[in-house]
Design brief:
Two copies of one chain form a homodimer.
Chain A: H1 2-20, H2 32-49, E1 53-57, E2 64-69, E3 77-83, E4 103-105, E5 108-110, H3 118-133, E6 140-146, H4 156-162, H5 164-167, E7 171-174, E8 186-191, E9 193-202, E10 208-209, H6 210-213, H7 220-229, H8 252-258, H9 265-272, H10 285-290, E11 294-303, E12 312-313, E13 316-325, H11 331-344, E14 351-360, E15 363-364, H12 370-383, E16 388-392, H13 397-406, E17 409-412, E18 428-430, H14 431-447
Parallel strand pairs in A: 3-6, 3-7, 7-17, 8-16
Antiparallel strand pairs in A: 1-2, 2-6, 4-5, 5-18, 8-15, 9-13, 9-14, 10-12, 11-13
Helix pairs in contact in A: 1-3, 2-3, 3-14, 4-13, 12-14
Chain lengths: ~450, ~450
């Protein structure tokens, strides 16, 4: 594969850049056409890489791409999952180059989706192309690319249920996560779930002059701040009633095992330019993001937010609040607990609306499986060091659903790095990781 | 004056609407040209109403309009103060008609500035026109219209200091406030000051993926909410250290006198559609807005605020926070106390920027003065009932400065009503108040 990469590098870049130039922002209705265009582009790429067939399937949301190459009915079947939708690009002024005109700087590709997940799914396309063209294919390979991962994969579970025969597989192979570092390769053996809510605090029926009313009425912004602040106590515990009921406490042994992953606090703080970390009492930083749930405000707005000043008490204030969940917490149940709790803490003088935006459950995958072992051997060969098992803090909500629908475990071979700043301005993907990932994937098929 | 109004009503409406159509939003640089256009329009209106001279004066900010008509060096001189700038119009979608295309509905003019302050200053132009044309003028009258009242009157004090001879007067007459109700006319005998701040809470040096970092780093939005919530305690007291040091507690007698102003709590709550009021323990609603300081968040923003969802921990979160001050509190001192306090409460993991946007002091005016008595008699004659003295919750920052520079007290004859929702969508001004105001102003000159 290394030779194949060397001989085809320029073509690879050209193809990947074409994919990255399509602004497939799933959360923005204005980009609906780009979603279809991106899905069609992927079917072309699948066919040209060697798939027997590839097709765009409509769903109730953005389309799904499915393609496959059959090898033998006796061979194991691998389903490659990826997503072609990307996050929005704001704040746009912080990008050093156009998010949709990718460019290479200092050995990395910069652009929206460079890593998440166009760059990572591209590794699978090219490893597949290599296996087919070099006649090394020994598995049945299926590809499933969705367009709604960044907005909660609303349509995919229903679609997958209706197409479960077509999707049937022995394992799901996914590259949509990070490694601990280039020097410490890791394989993700669990991810958090998510419950994403939007809340509105409503006060007076109109915006008010803050001179005439200030001091006498509940200000929806102040009240929203009060309510948000009360959601996490001084020990970093989430105060939503019943929130921790289904959280499984890990044994000291399991925590020690996960604690083996190297972590440099000074480097971590320096990378983020913060003077201190903050989280739940009694847990390390890696535990706080790996095995513990959390709550974050992802967006807040209300009142006058333009230049200058306006002396207003606004009628409403809003926030987007998400909770990361650990396996065994059920996202729908958490949404209900949150909504009930948030309504219950509304101070007199305001009313509260709470709606669920999306949710998905977390999951764990066994590290004793043949697929995990094959991946571990492949990565070890490419990186010269055995990968460590890790627990990812992010969520790929749909994987828990697919695991349930298809009866197959996901295997998370992710090659992203923290430095890639996915979801943020200047998302990037190191060429060394792109190519190292391709090589590892090709070797995975050799050892699986 | 009543006859004069009846005979000229249509022309009055045409002239006022021309003024209202100019989008003189002082806080928005895009409207710089409109500010000049509005100032020039006012000089034309002054001349056509009968002024000897009227001129636009440049300042370091938006221009000032000054005009005058001399009657006799023996006669008292009245300086009419008003402002031609208006508030921004967002949220624009809540307006039932174009804010800059005024229209009359149900006996009221709807449009930005209909009341604040174009409608109210227009009453003075027309009462003056009446006195001149009907040869009833017995005072020297000066007009001072500024274009920065809504953004803190930054330039006017310096300009007034440089032109204090030209502005010299015995009293300042101002219509930029409200009456308690149409049935309970009132004269404002004090206003609150203001200190308006903008704060930024900075966390990590980039937006972060809330899955990878959620639970482990201080989220600037959550921290901003925590800090804001801590600014007011459970008794409604502002916690900024030293904030109340200069607040003068009113005597039981003074509070009883002000308590004579009628107030219907059920009507108040119904007007605002709120189930309860909220404020400082131990004070009534009118006291909370009239004689006590307060703190409100006027705007807040951070993270992802578009449609849908984005799983981000933002690098920064922002808020505009203003405090209404009572006489004897000094706005600059309060700004410093606030900045020091806000920085001192920043939790580990975030840094804080605080800047002062604008400020102005509050003031009190004596109800035993000849001017107050003349105004009271005039209003009593028009409304059929004696006006009550009241304390306004709003701020006209510049009046305390002008009082100091010119050595003349302001007299606040305001004819706005709560229903006018100034600073909000669908600002309005009742025709009955517009004309009642004109009549009261004409009579004021008769009795002063």
């Amino acid at each position: 594969m290394r030779n194949y990469i060397d001989n085809n590098k320029e073509r690879f870049m050209k193809e990947l850049f074409e994919l990255l130039r399509i602004p497939s922002i799933s959360s923005d209705k204005a980009h609906k056409g780009d979603m279809t265009r991106c899905a069609e582009k992927l079917t072309e790429m699948l066919i040209s890489a060697g798939a027997d067939s590839a097709k765009v399937f409509p769903t109730k949301g953005h389309p799904v791409v499915f393609g496959e190459k059959k090898f033998s009915s006796d061979a194991p079947t691998v389903l490659v999952y990826g997503h072609y939708d990307v996050q929005p690009v704001d704040p746009i002024h912080l990008w050093k180059s156009d998010p949709f005109e990718p460019e290479i700087r200092d050995g990395a590709i910069y652009g929206r989706g460079a890593n998440d997940d166009k760059g990572q799914l591209f590794m699978h396309l090219k490893a597949f192309e290599y296996l087919v063209r070099e006649k090394k294919l020994r598995h049945n390979i299926k590809f499933l690319f969705e367009g709604e991962e960044e907005i909660g994969s609303d349509s995919l579970a229903e679609w997958a249920e209706a197409h479960k025969e077509m999707l049937s597989c022995d394992i799901m192979l996914v590259s949509d996560t990070t490694m601990i570092s280039e020097k410490v390769p890791s394989i993700n053996c669990g991810m958090r779930g998510i419950t994403y809510m939007e809340v509105t605090v409503k006060g007076p029926n109109k915006d008010l002059h803050s001179g005439h009313y200030g001091g006498a009425v509940a200000n929806p912004i102040n009240m929203l701040c009060k309510m948000i602040d009360s959601l996490i106590d001084d020990k970093g515990h989430i105060t939503v009633k019943g929130f921790y009921d289904d959280v499984v406490e890990l044994s000291r042994e399991d925590r020690d095992l996960l604690g083996k992953a190297p972590f440099d606090m000074d480097e971590y703080k320096k990378f983020l330019d913060i003077d201190d970390v903050r989280g739940e009492d009694g847990y390390t930083t890696l535990e706080r993001t790996g095995i513990r749930p959390c709550l974050d405000v992802n967006g807040i707005w209300g009142g006058f937010i333009g230049d200058g000043s306006k002396t207003v008490i606004p009628s409403e204030a809003h926030a987007k609040i998400s909770m990361r969940l650990v396996p065994n917490q059920e996202c729908g149940k958490i949404a209900k607990l949150f909504a009930d709790h948030f309504k219950s803490i509304a101070p007199a003088g305001v009313r509260v609306d709470v709606k669920e935006v999306h949710g998905g459950n977390g999951f764990l995958i066994p590290i004793s499986s043949p697929a995990y072992k094959a991946a571990s051997r492949a990565i070890s060969e490419v990186y010269g060091i055995d990968p460590v098992p890790s627990r990812g803090g992010g969520s790929i909500a749909i994987l828990a659903d697919l695991q349930h629908i298809l009866g197959a475990d996901p295997l998370l071979m992710g090659f992203g790095l923290e430095r890639d700043t996915i979801h943020s301005p200047n998302e990037s993907y190191l060429l060394s990781q792109l190519f190292g990932g391709m090589e590892s994937i090709a070797l995975f098929y050799k050892y699986f």
